[in-house]
Design a protein that fits this description.
It contains 1 helix and no strands. By secondary structure, it is mostly helical. The chain has one domain. The longest helix is centred in the middle third of the chain and has 16 residues. The mean pLDDT is 82.
Length: 65
């Protein structure tokens, strides 16, 4: 049963729940932190393929934990 879904997209649109990280360098930092967490034993719980987001923009981050 799906209780809630999130809409990823343009943060200026009212129906958007998740938007891009403010800077590409911030997205890189977050990805590095997520990779470190996995190396230290964290388990990714959310499959990125379940999210429809603009993959050509590298500053969109999908929640994973």
């Amino acid at each position: 049963m799906i209780k809630h879904t999130a809409k990823i997209g343009n943060p200026l649109k009212e129906d958007t729940n998740l938007g891009p990280v403010v800077k590409l360098s911030a997205a890189g930092f977050i990805k590095d932190q997520m990779n470190l967490a996995v190396k230290q034993g964290a388990k990714m719980m959310i499959n990125e393929s379940k999210f429809d987001y603009p993959k050509e923009h590298k500053n969109y981050m999908i929640p994973k934990f």
